[in-house]
Amino acid sequence: MTQSQPAQAGAPMITFSNVQKRYGAVPALIDINAEVARGEVVVVCGPSGSGKSTLIRTVNRLEEIQAGSIQFDGQEVHGSLRGKQLNRLRSRIGFVFQSFNLFPHLSALDNVMLSPIKINGASREAARATAMRLLDRVGLSNKIQSFPAQLSGGQQQRVAIARALAMEPPAMLFDEPTSALDPEMVGEVLAVMRSLASEGMTMMCVTHEMGFARDVADRVWFMDAGRILEAATPDEFFRNPQHERAKRFLADLRH
Amino acid sequence: MIADIITIVRDNWLLLLVGQYPNGPLGGIAATLILSVLSIALAFPVSVLLALARLSKAPLLYWPATAVVFIARGVPLLMLILWTYFMVPIITGYNVPGFATMLVTLVIYEGAFLSEIVRGGILALGRGQMEAAKALGHGGASAMLYIILPQALFNVLPSILSQFVSAIKETTLGYVINVPELTFAANQINNQLLTKPFQVFFILALIYYVVCWSLTRAATLLERRIVTKRSGLSGAPLALTATAATVEP
Ligand SMILES: Nc1ncnc2c1ncn2[C@@H]1O[C@H](COP(=O)(O)OP(=O)(O)O)[C@@H](O)[C@H]1O
Ligand SMILES: [Mg+2]
Protein backbone atom coordinates (compact mmCIF):
# COMPACT_ATOMS: atom_id res chain seq x y z
CA MET A 1 0.00 0.00 0.00
CA THR A 2 2.57 2.55 1.08
CA GLN A 3 4.67 3.42 -1.92
CA SER A 4 7.00 5.79 -0.10
CA GLN A 5 10.35 4.30 0.71
CA PRO A 6 9.98 3.63 4.46
CA ALA A 7 12.40 5.94 6.18
CA GLN A 8 14.68 4.62 8.87
CA ALA A 9 12.97 4.20 12.21
CA GLY A 10 14.99 7.02 13.73
CA ALA A 11 14.25 9.56 10.99
CA PRO A 12 11.73 12.30 11.81
CA MET A 13 8.12 11.98 10.68
CA ILE A 14 7.92 15.61 9.58
CA THR A 15 10.87 17.84 8.70
CA PHE A 16 10.64 21.53 7.83
CA SER A 17 13.80 22.90 6.21
CA ASN A 18 14.14 26.63 5.55
CA VAL A 19 10.46 26.92 4.72
CA GLN A 20 9.30 30.29 3.43
CA LYS A 21 5.72 31.13 2.64
CA ARG A 22 4.12 34.39 1.54
CA TYR A 23 0.55 35.37 0.78
CA GLY A 24 1.20 37.84 -2.00
CA ALA A 25 3.81 40.11 -0.50
CA VAL A 26 2.89 39.29 3.09
CA PRO A 27 5.22 36.76 4.70
CA ALA A 28 3.32 34.06 6.60
CA LEU A 29 6.15 31.62 7.36
CA ILE A 30 9.75 32.74 7.74
CA ASP A 31 12.74 30.42 7.94
CA ILE A 32 10.97 27.46 9.47
CA ASN A 33 13.37 24.72 10.53
CA ALA A 34 11.82 22.11 12.75
CA GLU A 35 11.15 18.42 13.15
CA VAL A 36 8.41 16.22 14.50
CA ALA A 37 9.92 12.90 15.54
CA ARG A 38 8.12 9.57 15.21
CA GLY A 39 5.71 9.05 18.07
CA GLU A 40 6.17 12.62 19.20
CA VAL A 41 3.33 14.98 20.14
CA VAL A 42 4.04 18.59 19.23
CA VAL A 43 1.74 21.37 20.32
CA VAL A 44 1.92 24.53 18.23
CA CYS A 45 0.74 27.68 19.96
CA GLY A 46 1.00 31.40 19.48
CA PRO A 47 -1.13 34.48 18.98
CA SER A 48 -3.79 34.67 16.30
CA GLY A 49 -2.33 35.34 12.87
CA SER A 50 1.11 34.06 13.81
CA GLY A 51 1.04 31.40 11.08
CA LYS A 52 0.02 28.25 12.96
CA SER A 53 -2.66 27.20 10.50
CA THR A 54 -0.46 28.07 7.57
CA LEU A 55 2.35 25.94 9.00
CA ILE A 56 0.24 22.87 9.64
CA ARG A 57 -1.51 23.19 6.27
CA THR A 58 1.79 23.15 4.39
CA VAL A 59 2.44 19.62 5.67
CA ASN A 60 -0.26 18.08 3.46
CA ARG A 61 0.06 20.86 0.92
CA LEU A 62 -3.27 22.52 1.46
CA GLU A 63 -0.94 25.54 1.25
CA GLU A 64 1.98 25.85 -1.14
CA ILE A 65 5.35 27.16 -0.02
CA GLN A 66 7.70 29.49 -1.90
CA ALA A 67 11.03 28.11 -0.72
CA GLY A 68 12.52 25.39 1.42
CA SER A 69 11.27 21.83 1.74
CA ILE A 70 9.00 19.70 3.87
CA GLN A 71 9.40 15.96 4.21
CA PHE A 72 6.74 13.65 5.53
CA ASP A 73 7.84 10.14 6.42
CA GLY A 74 10.89 10.56 4.23
CA GLN A 75 8.93 11.84 1.24
CA GLU A 76 9.20 15.31 -0.23
CA VAL A 77 5.77 16.99 0.04
CA HIS A 78 6.28 20.01 -2.17
CA GLY A 79 8.39 20.17 -5.29
CA SER A 80 7.56 17.69 -8.02
CA LEU A 81 4.85 15.66 -6.31
CA ARG A 82 1.68 15.74 -8.42
CA GLY A 83 -1.68 14.14 -9.00
CA LYS A 84 -2.04 10.60 -7.74
CA GLN A 85 1.21 10.64 -5.76
CA LEU A 86 0.15 13.77 -3.93
CA ASN A 87 -3.26 12.25 -3.20
CA ARG A 88 -1.59 9.08 -1.92
CA LEU A 89 0.65 11.10 0.37
CA ARG A 90 -2.27 13.19 1.64
CA SER A 91 -4.25 10.06 2.44
CA ARG A 92 -1.42 9.14 4.83
CA ILE A 93 -1.62 12.42 6.73
CA GLY A 94 -4.60 12.61 9.05
CA PHE A 95 -5.95 16.15 9.18
CA VAL A 96 -8.57 17.53 11.57
CA PHE A 97 -10.06 20.96 10.92
CA GLN A 98 -11.30 23.54 13.36
CA SER A 99 -14.66 23.54 11.54
CA PHE A 100 -14.91 19.70 11.39
CA ASN A 101 -15.80 19.73 7.67
CA LEU A 102 -17.80 16.53 7.88
CA PHE A 103 -19.66 15.63 4.69
CA PRO A 104 -23.21 16.71 5.57
CA HIS A 105 -24.89 14.45 3.00
CA LEU A 106 -23.43 11.32 4.58
CA SER A 107 -24.15 9.61 7.89
CA ALA A 108 -21.39 9.40 10.48
CA LEU A 109 -20.69 5.86 9.34
CA ASP A 110 -20.55 6.80 5.67
CA ASN A 111 -18.31 9.77 6.44
CA VAL A 112 -15.80 7.33 7.88
CA MET A 113 -16.30 4.63 5.22
CA LEU A 114 -16.19 6.78 2.10
CA SER A 115 -12.47 7.39 1.65
CA PRO A 116 -11.20 3.87 2.44
CA ILE A 117 -13.63 2.55 -0.19
CA LYS A 118 -13.08 5.18 -2.86
CA ILE A 119 -9.37 5.77 -2.38
CA ASN A 120 -7.93 2.56 -0.99
CA GLY A 121 -10.39 0.30 -2.77
CA ALA A 122 -11.41 -1.32 0.50
CA SER A 123 -14.40 -3.63 0.37
CA ARG A 124 -17.62 -2.32 1.86
CA GLU A 125 -17.53 -4.94 4.59
CA ALA A 126 -13.95 -4.18 5.58
CA ALA A 127 -14.55 -0.41 5.50
CA ARG A 128 -17.66 -0.85 7.59
CA ALA A 129 -15.89 -2.97 10.19
CA THR A 130 -13.08 -0.41 10.45
CA ALA A 131 -15.52 2.48 10.66
CA MET A 132 -17.55 0.78 13.40
CA ARG A 133 -14.40 0.09 15.38
CA LEU A 134 -13.19 3.69 15.04
CA LEU A 135 -16.57 5.23 15.85
CA ASP A 136 -16.73 2.99 18.88
CA ARG A 137 -13.28 4.11 19.84
CA VAL A 138 -14.31 7.81 19.78
CA GLY A 139 -17.39 6.90 21.82
CA LEU A 140 -20.00 7.23 19.07
CA SER A 141 -21.10 3.66 18.39
CA ASN A 142 -24.67 4.75 19.12
CA LYS A 143 -24.54 7.56 16.52
CA ILE A 144 -23.36 5.76 13.43
CA GLN A 145 -26.54 6.46 11.46
CA SER A 146 -26.77 10.12 12.50
CA PHE A 147 -26.09 12.88 10.02
CA PRO A 148 -23.64 15.64 10.90
CA ALA A 149 -26.45 18.17 11.37
CA GLN A 150 -27.92 15.90 14.03
CA LEU A 151 -24.68 15.76 16.03
CA SER A 152 -23.23 18.21 18.54
CA GLY A 153 -19.97 19.96 17.71
CA GLY A 154 -17.99 17.64 19.95
CA GLN A 155 -19.56 14.60 18.36
CA GLN A 156 -18.90 15.94 14.87
CA GLN A 157 -15.26 16.53 15.69
CA ARG A 158 -14.93 13.00 17.04
CA VAL A 159 -16.43 11.65 13.80
CA ALA A 160 -13.92 13.79 11.93
CA ILE A 161 -11.09 12.21 13.92
CA ALA A 162 -12.45 8.73 13.19
CA ARG A 163 -12.72 9.65 9.51
CA ALA A 164 -9.07 10.68 9.41
CA LEU A 165 -7.97 7.57 11.33
CA ALA A 166 -9.79 5.34 8.84
CA MET A 167 -7.03 6.00 6.32
CA GLU A 168 -4.54 4.58 8.86
CA PRO A 169 -2.26 7.60 8.80
CA PRO A 170 1.12 7.35 10.52
CA ALA A 171 0.61 10.91 11.81
CA MET A 172 -2.31 13.17 12.69
CA LEU A 173 -2.47 16.95 12.32
CA PHE A 174 -4.98 19.02 14.27
CA ASP A 175 -5.73 22.67 13.51
CA GLU A 176 -7.45 24.09 16.59
CA PRO A 177 -9.75 21.07 16.90
CA THR A 178 -11.57 22.43 19.94
CA SER A 179 -11.76 26.15 19.15
CA ALA A 180 -15.19 25.95 17.52
CA LEU A 181 -16.67 23.95 20.40
CA ASP A 182 -18.79 24.96 23.34
CA PRO A 183 -16.66 24.65 26.49
CA GLU A 184 -18.49 21.59 27.78
CA MET A 185 -17.53 19.65 24.65
CA VAL A 186 -13.84 20.43 24.62
CA GLY A 187 -13.05 17.65 27.07
CA GLU A 188 -14.53 14.82 25.01
CA VAL A 189 -12.41 15.74 21.99
CA LEU A 190 -9.25 16.21 24.04
CA ALA A 191 -9.86 12.82 25.64
CA VAL A 192 -9.79 11.18 22.21
CA MET A 193 -6.60 13.06 21.37
CA ARG A 194 -5.01 12.01 24.65
CA SER A 195 -5.82 8.38 24.00
CA LEU A 196 -4.31 8.64 20.52
CA ALA A 197 -1.16 10.15 21.98
CA SER A 198 -0.93 7.43 24.61
CA GLU A 199 -0.94 4.82 21.85
CA GLY A 200 2.09 6.42 20.28
CA MET A 201 0.47 8.34 17.41
CA THR A 202 2.68 11.06 15.96
CA MET A 203 0.72 14.29 16.40
CA MET A 204 1.09 17.93 15.49
CA CYS A 205 -1.62 19.95 17.24
CA VAL A 206 -2.35 23.62 16.92
CA THR A 207 -4.24 24.35 20.12
CA HIS A 208 -4.69 26.85 22.90
CA GLU A 209 -5.48 24.10 25.39
CA MET A 210 -2.46 24.56 27.60
CA GLY A 211 -3.57 21.79 29.96
CA PHE A 212 -3.38 19.39 27.03
CA ALA A 213 0.02 20.80 26.06
CA ARG A 214 1.35 20.40 29.58
CA ASP A 215 0.12 16.82 30.01
CA VAL A 216 0.49 15.34 26.56
CA ALA A 217 2.98 17.29 24.45
CA ASP A 218 6.58 16.19 24.13
CA ARG A 219 7.45 19.59 22.72
CA VAL A 220 5.77 22.96 22.41
CA TRP A 221 6.46 25.25 19.48
CA PHE A 222 5.65 28.89 20.08
CA MET A 223 5.02 30.89 16.93
CA ASP A 224 4.93 34.63 16.40
CA ALA A 225 4.78 36.61 13.16
CA GLY A 226 5.56 33.62 10.96
CA ARG A 227 8.52 32.29 12.96
CA ILE A 228 8.91 29.49 15.46
CA LEU A 229 10.32 31.54 18.34
CA GLU A 230 10.59 28.73 20.83
CA ALA A 231 10.67 24.96 20.65
CA ALA A 232 10.91 23.47 24.11
CA THR A 233 9.52 20.82 26.39
CA PRO A 234 6.23 21.92 27.97
CA ASP A 235 8.01 22.11 31.29
CA GLU A 236 10.65 24.52 30.00
CA PHE A 237 8.16 26.50 27.99
CA PHE A 238 5.62 27.08 30.72
CA ARG A 239 8.12 27.56 33.51
CA ASN A 240 10.65 29.65 31.72
CA PRO A 241 9.64 31.08 28.34
CA GLN A 242 12.61 32.77 26.68
CA HIS A 243 10.93 35.49 24.66
CA GLU A 244 9.02 38.47 25.89
CA ARG A 245 6.33 37.66 23.30
CA ALA A 246 5.88 34.15 24.75
CA LYS A 247 5.65 35.49 28.30
CA ARG A 248 2.95 37.92 27.27
CA PHE A 249 1.10 35.17 25.36
CA LEU A 250 1.09 32.89 28.40
CA ALA A 251 0.04 35.74 30.66
CA ASP A 252 -2.87 36.58 28.33
CA LEU A 253 -3.97 32.95 28.29
CA ARG A 254 -4.16 32.84 32.07
CA HIS A 255 -6.76 35.59 32.13
CA MET B 1 -68.35 32.40 -23.19
CA ILE B 2 -67.97 29.49 -20.72
CA ALA B 3 -70.12 27.42 -23.03
CA ASP B 4 -67.85 28.33 -25.96
CA ILE B 5 -64.82 27.23 -24.03
CA ILE B 6 -66.40 23.93 -23.07
CA THR B 7 -67.41 23.30 -26.66
CA ILE B 8 -63.98 24.14 -27.99
CA VAL B 9 -62.31 21.83 -25.50
CA ARG B 10 -64.80 19.05 -26.20
CA ASP B 11 -64.27 19.30 -29.97
CA ASN B 12 -60.51 19.69 -29.88
CA TRP B 13 -59.22 17.96 -26.77
CA LEU B 14 -57.33 15.37 -28.74
CA LEU B 15 -55.60 18.03 -30.82
CA LEU B 16 -54.67 19.92 -27.66
CA LEU B 17 -53.40 16.74 -26.06
CA VAL B 18 -51.39 15.06 -28.83
CA GLY B 19 -51.72 17.26 -31.96
CA GLN B 20 -52.28 15.41 -35.28
CA TYR B 21 -50.98 12.15 -33.83
CA PRO B 22 -51.31 9.34 -35.01
CA ASN B 23 -52.12 10.80 -38.43
CA GLY B 24 -49.41 13.42 -38.19
CA PRO B 25 -46.54 14.33 -35.91
CA LEU B 26 -47.04 14.22 -32.16
CA GLY B 27 -48.03 17.67 -30.92
CA GLY B 28 -50.07 19.46 -28.28
CA ILE B 29 -49.38 19.18 -24.57
CA ALA B 30 -47.63 15.86 -25.14
CA ALA B 31 -45.07 17.47 -27.45
CA THR B 32 -44.65 20.42 -25.13
CA LEU B 33 -43.96 18.15 -22.16
CA ILE B 34 -41.71 15.79 -24.09
CA LEU B 35 -39.75 18.74 -25.45
CA SER B 36 -39.31 20.35 -22.04
CA VAL B 37 -38.51 17.09 -20.21
CA LEU B 38 -35.98 16.08 -22.86
CA SER B 39 -34.42 19.50 -22.96
CA ILE B 40 -33.93 19.63 -19.20
CA ALA B 41 -32.79 16.01 -19.02
CA LEU B 42 -30.14 16.69 -21.65
CA ALA B 43 -29.33 20.19 -20.41
CA PHE B 44 -28.61 18.84 -16.95
CA PRO B 45 -25.44 16.86 -17.75
CA VAL B 46 -24.40 19.65 -20.12
CA SER B 47 -24.81 22.16 -17.31
CA VAL B 48 -22.70 20.11 -14.89
CA LEU B 49 -19.90 19.88 -17.46
CA LEU B 50 -20.16 23.61 -18.23
CA ALA B 51 -20.10 24.45 -14.52
CA LEU B 52 -17.04 22.27 -13.90
CA ALA B 53 -15.30 23.80 -16.91
CA ARG B 54 -16.12 27.27 -15.65
CA LEU B 55 -14.63 26.38 -12.25
CA SER B 56 -11.54 24.86 -13.83
CA LYS B 57 -8.24 26.68 -13.86
CA ALA B 58 -7.38 25.26 -17.30
CA PRO B 59 -7.89 28.05 -19.89
CA LEU B 60 -8.84 25.52 -22.57
CA LEU B 61 -11.82 24.45 -20.48
CA TYR B 62 -12.63 27.75 -18.84
CA TRP B 63 -12.76 30.05 -21.86
CA PRO B 64 -14.90 28.02 -24.28
CA ALA B 65 -17.39 27.17 -21.52
CA THR B 66 -17.52 30.78 -20.38
CA ALA B 67 -18.10 31.94 -23.95
CA VAL B 68 -20.98 29.48 -24.44
CA VAL B 69 -22.59 30.52 -21.17
CA PHE B 70 -22.27 34.24 -21.86
CA ILE B 71 -23.56 34.00 -25.42
CA ALA B 72 -26.49 31.78 -24.48
CA ARG B 73 -27.40 34.03 -21.59
CA GLY B 74 -26.78 37.23 -23.50
CA VAL B 75 -29.04 36.80 -26.53
CA PRO B 76 -32.81 36.31 -26.72
CA LEU B 77 -33.87 32.68 -27.01
CA LEU B 78 -35.90 33.44 -30.13
CA MET B 79 -32.76 34.65 -31.86
CA LEU B 80 -30.90 31.51 -30.86
CA ILE B 81 -33.74 29.42 -32.27
CA LEU B 82 -33.78 31.30 -35.58
CA TRP B 83 -30.02 31.05 -35.86
CA THR B 84 -30.06 27.30 -35.33
CA TYR B 85 -33.04 26.93 -37.64
CA PHE B 86 -31.50 28.80 -40.57
CA MET B 87 -27.78 28.26 -40.02
CA VAL B 88 -27.61 24.54 -39.28
CA PRO B 89 -28.98 23.51 -42.72
CA ILE B 90 -26.60 25.97 -44.41
CA ILE B 91 -23.59 24.69 -42.50
CA THR B 92 -24.40 20.97 -42.51
CA GLY B 93 -26.36 20.74 -45.74
CA TYR B 94 -29.09 18.78 -43.96
CA ASN B 95 -32.58 19.92 -43.24
CA VAL B 96 -33.12 19.55 -39.52
CA PRO B 97 -36.71 19.10 -38.33
CA GLY B 98 -38.18 21.85 -36.17
CA PHE B 99 -38.47 19.57 -33.15
CA ALA B 100 -34.77 18.68 -33.21
CA THR B 101 -33.78 22.31 -33.79
CA MET B 102 -35.89 23.38 -30.87
CA LEU B 103 -34.49 20.62 -28.65
CA VAL B 104 -30.86 21.42 -29.42
CA THR B 105 -31.38 25.13 -28.90
CA LEU B 106 -33.20 24.58 -25.62
CA VAL B 107 -30.48 22.24 -24.38
CA ILE B 108 -27.80 24.86 -25.03
CA TYR B 109 -29.91 27.66 -23.60
CA GLU B 110 -31.13 25.77 -20.54
CA GLY B 111 -27.69 24.22 -20.10
CA ALA B 112 -26.12 27.67 -19.87
CA PHE B 113 -28.64 28.85 -17.29
CA LEU B 114 -28.49 25.64 -15.28
CA SER B 115 -24.70 25.71 -15.33
CA GLU B 116 -24.72 28.98 -13.45
CA ILE B 117 -27.12 27.48 -10.90
CA VAL B 118 -24.91 24.41 -10.51
CA ARG B 119 -21.77 26.54 -10.29
CA GLY B 120 -23.44 28.63 -7.59
CA GLY B 121 -24.37 25.44 -5.73
CA ILE B 122 -20.77 24.24 -5.83
CA LEU B 123 -19.36 27.58 -4.70
CA ALA B 124 -21.95 27.84 -1.94
CA LEU B 125 -20.49 24.76 -0.27
CA GLY B 126 -17.43 26.76 0.71
CA ARG B 127 -13.87 25.50 0.48
CA GLY B 128 -13.97 23.41 3.65
CA GLN B 129 -15.59 20.46 1.88
CA MET B 130 -13.03 20.39 -0.91
CA GLU B 131 -10.19 20.79 1.58
CA ALA B 132 -11.49 17.92 3.70
CA ALA B 133 -11.75 15.78 0.57
CA LYS B 134 -8.21 16.65 -0.51
CA ALA B 135 -6.82 16.09 2.98
CA LEU B 136 -8.26 12.56 2.91
CA GLY B 137 -6.52 11.96 -0.41
CA HIS B 138 -9.35 12.42 -2.89
CA GLY B 139 -8.37 13.73 -6.30
CA GLY B 140 -10.43 16.42 -8.00
CA ALA B 141 -12.71 14.00 -9.85
CA SER B 142 -13.30 11.79 -6.85
CA ALA B 143 -14.01 14.79 -4.61
CA MET B 144 -16.48 16.21 -7.14
CA LEU B 145 -18.23 12.90 -7.71
CA TYR B 146 -18.66 11.70 -4.14
CA ILE B 147 -18.51 14.83 -2.02
CA ILE B 148 -19.15 18.11 -3.85
CA LEU B 149 -21.70 17.31 -6.56
CA PRO B 150 -24.05 15.16 -4.45
CA GLN B 151 -24.43 18.09 -2.06
CA ALA B 152 -24.42 20.89 -4.61
CA LEU B 153 -26.92 19.25 -6.98
CA PHE B 154 -29.20 18.25 -4.14
CA ASN B 155 -29.20 21.81 -2.83
CA VAL B 156 -30.06 23.29 -6.22
CA LEU B 157 -32.85 20.81 -7.01
CA PRO B 158 -35.56 23.46 -6.47
CA SER B 159 -33.79 25.83 -8.88
CA ILE B 160 -33.51 23.05 -11.41
CA LEU B 161 -37.24 22.47 -11.11
CA SER B 162 -37.90 26.21 -11.62
CA GLN B 163 -35.72 26.10 -14.70
CA PHE B 164 -37.87 23.22 -15.91
CA VAL B 165 -40.93 25.45 -15.57
CA SER B 166 -39.14 28.10 -17.64
CA ALA B 167 -38.36 25.47 -20.24
CA ILE B 168 -42.06 24.64 -20.57
CA LYS B 169 -42.84 28.27 -21.22
CA GLU B 170 -39.95 28.58 -23.63
CA THR B 171 -41.21 25.71 -25.78
CA THR B 172 -43.97 28.09 -27.00
CA LEU B 173 -41.32 29.75 -29.12
CA GLY B 174 -41.16 26.53 -31.12
CA TYR B 175 -44.27 27.92 -32.77
CA VAL B 176 -42.21 30.26 -34.96
CA ILE B 177 -40.38 27.35 -36.56
CA ASN B 178 -43.52 25.21 -36.83
CA VAL B 179 -42.84 22.79 -34.01
CA PRO B 180 -46.28 21.24 -33.45
CA GLU B 181 -46.45 21.88 -29.71
CA LEU B 182 -49.29 23.20 -27.59
CA THR B 183 -49.30 26.79 -28.82
CA PHE B 184 -49.18 25.54 -32.37
CA ALA B 185 -52.22 23.34 -31.73
CA ALA B 186 -54.12 26.22 -30.19
CA ASN B 187 -53.37 28.37 -33.19
CA GLN B 188 -54.62 25.63 -35.50
CA ILE B 189 -57.89 25.60 -33.62
CA ASN B 190 -58.09 29.36 -33.77
CA ASN B 191 -57.53 29.29 -37.53
CA GLN B 192 -60.41 26.85 -37.93
CA LEU B 193 -62.87 28.78 -35.76
CA LEU B 194 -61.68 32.26 -36.79
CA THR B 195 -64.20 34.04 -34.54
CA LYS B 196 -63.19 32.85 -31.07
CA PRO B 197 -59.57 33.89 -30.46
CA PHE B 198 -60.19 35.02 -26.90
CA GLN B 199 -61.71 31.67 -25.88
CA VAL B 200 -59.04 29.62 -27.63
CA PHE B 201 -56.13 31.53 -26.17
CA PHE B 202 -57.77 31.60 -22.78
CA ILE B 203 -57.74 27.78 -22.83
CA LEU B 204 -54.11 27.87 -23.90
CA ALA B 205 -53.16 30.20 -21.06
CA LEU B 206 -55.09 28.09 -18.57
CA ILE B 207 -53.30 24.90 -19.58
CA TYR B 208 -49.87 26.50 -19.31
CA TYR B 209 -50.83 28.04 -16.01
CA VAL B 210 -52.02 24.78 -14.47
CA VAL B 211 -48.95 22.85 -15.59
CA CYS B 212 -46.47 25.50 -14.54
CA TRP B 213 -48.21 26.35 -11.29
CA SER B 214 -48.23 22.69 -10.20
CA LEU B 215 -44.53 22.43 -10.87
CA THR B 216 -43.75 25.71 -9.13
CA ARG B 217 -45.70 24.46 -6.16
CA ALA B 218 -43.70 21.22 -6.21
CA ALA B 219 -40.48 23.24 -6.29
CA THR B 220 -41.56 25.23 -3.23
CA LEU B 221 -42.42 22.08 -1.30
CA LEU B 222 -39.14 20.49 -2.29
CA GLU B 223 -37.25 23.57 -1.22
CA ARG B 224 -38.95 23.53 2.17
CA ARG B 225 -38.02 19.89 2.63
CA ILE B 226 -34.42 20.56 1.76
CA VAL B 227 -34.21 23.48 4.17
CA THR B 228 -35.67 21.26 6.90
CA LYS B 229 -33.21 18.53 6.12
CA ARG B 230 -30.25 20.91 6.09
CA SER B 231 -31.19 22.26 9.49
CA GLY B 232 -31.02 18.68 10.73
CA LEU B 233 -34.46 18.60 12.29
CA SER B 234 -35.91 15.75 10.31
CA GLY B 235 -35.64 14.53 6.78
CA ALA B 236 -33.66 11.44 7.56
CA PRO B 237 -35.55 9.60 4.77
CA LEU B 238 -34.43 12.16 2.19
CA ALA B 239 -30.92 12.00 3.54
CA LEU B 240 -30.90 8.23 3.46
CA THR B 241 -31.82 8.10 -0.19
CA ALA B 242 -29.04 10.58 -0.90
CA THR B 243 -26.64 8.29 0.92
CA ALA B 244 -27.75 5.17 -0.84
CA ALA B 245 -27.15 6.93 -4.12
CA THR B 246 -23.63 8.00 -3.32
CA VAL B 247 -21.77 5.44 -1.27
CA GLU B 248 -22.34 2.28 -3.26
CA PRO B 249 -18.86 1.06 -4.23
N1 LIG C 1 -5.58 32.70 2.32
C1 LIG C 1 -4.90 33.74 2.83
N2 LIG C 1 -4.65 34.82 2.06
C2 LIG C 1 -3.95 35.86 2.55
N3 LIG C 1 -3.44 35.93 3.77
C3 LIG C 1 -3.65 34.89 4.59
C4 LIG C 1 -4.38 33.74 4.16
N4 LIG C 1 -4.43 32.86 5.18
C5 LIG C 1 -3.75 33.42 6.19
N5 LIG C 1 -3.29 34.64 5.85
C6 LIG C 1 -2.46 35.51 6.70
O1 LIG C 1 -1.32 34.80 7.10
C7 LIG C 1 -1.03 35.03 8.45
C8 LIG C 1 -1.05 33.75 9.24
O2 LIG C 1 -2.35 33.24 9.28
P1 LIG C 1 -2.73 31.87 9.98
O3 LIG C 1 -1.75 30.84 9.58
O4 LIG C 1 -4.16 31.60 9.71
O5 LIG C 1 -2.52 32.24 11.52
P2 LIG C 1 -3.02 31.48 12.83
O6 LIG C 1 -3.53 30.14 12.43
O7 LIG C 1 -1.81 31.40 13.69
O8 LIG C 1 -4.07 32.34 13.44
C9 LIG C 1 -2.06 36.04 8.94
O9 LIG C 1 -1.49 37.32 8.82
C10 LIG C 1 -3.19 35.89 7.96
O10 LIG C 1 -3.88 37.09 7.82
MG1 LIG D 1 -5.47 29.30 12.65
TrEMBL record, chain A:
PROSITE patterns: ABC_TRANSPORTER_1 (PS00211), ABC_TRANSPORTER_2 (PS50893). It holds the Pfam family ABC_tran. SMART domains: AAA. Belongs to the ABC transporter superfamily. One of its GO terms (molecular function) is ABC-type amino acid transporter activity. This is ABC transporter permease. Residues 14-250 form the ABC transporter domain. It comes from the Bacteria. InterPro entries: AAA+_ATPase (IPR003593), ABC_ATPase_HisP-typ (IPR030679), ABC_transporter-like_ATP-bd (IPR003439), ABC_transporter-like_CS (IPR017871), MetN_ABC_transporter-like (IPR050086), P-loop_NTPase (IPR027417). The keyword Nucleotide-binding applies. Keywords: ATP-binding, Nucleotide-binding, Transport.
UniProtKB/TrEMBL annotation, chain B:
It holds the Pfam family BPD_transp_1. It comes from the Bacteria. GO terms for molecular function: transmembrane transporter activity. GO terms for cellular component: ATP-binding cassette (ABC) transporter complex. It is found in: Cell inner membrane; Cell membrane. It is a multi-pass membrane protein. Keywords: Cell membrane, Membrane, Transmembrane, Transmembrane helix, Transport. The chain crosses the membrane at residues 26-53, 60-88, 94-114, 135-154, 200-222. One of its GO terms (biological process) is amino acid transport. Coiled coil: none annotated. Residues 29-219 form the ABC transmembrane type-1 domain. The keyword Transmembrane applies. Its main location: membrane. The keyword Cell membrane applies. Belongs to the binding-protein-dependent transport system permease family. HisMQ subfamily. NCBIfam families: HEQRo_perm_3TM (TIGR01726). This is ABC transporter permease.
